[in-house]
Design goal:
The chain is α/β, with parallel strands linked by helices and 104 residues long. It has two helices and six strands. The chain has one domain. Helices cover 22% and strands 37% of the residues. Strand 4 and strand 5 form a beta hairpin. The longest helix is centred in the middle third of the chain and has 14 residues. The radius of gyration is 13 Å and the shape is globular.
């Protein structure tokens, strides 16, 4: 599986292979009635709320989406890198500074 790139208002969303595999594996955790328009709105809001170079986690459906807002120097663009998607029984980095919890 390869990365998937989607142009947003201020950046490019990068769906990593691991993230894509986790979403497919955990489809039952996805929000109901999800559409491309809702996804674009959600990702743009996430971009606005995230801090550059800080890994984050955000409640997404019945799970947590993990990602990072970065500047890709090679491609000379800002990216919203979507890294993983996990069940919501706990925030997996709760006791570490690895990811900051974001609420939308």
């Amino acid at each position: 599986m390869k990365c998937l790139y989607i142009n947003l208002a201020d950046c490019v969303a990068v769906f990593t292979p691991h993230f894509r595999e986790q979403v497919i594996k955990r489809q039952e955790l996805m929000p109901a009635g999800w559409t491309i328009d809702k996804a674009t709105e959600f990702l743009n809001a996430l971009w606005d709320k995230a801090t550059i170079d800080q890994t984050f986690g955000v409640k997404f459906g019945s799970g947590y989406l993990y990602g990072k807002k970065i500047y890709n120097g090679i491609r000379k663009r800002f990216e919203l890198e979507l890294i993983s998607f996990t069940p919501a029984d706990n925030f997996h980095t709760q006791n570490r500074t690895f990811a900051k919890l974001i609420t939308l």
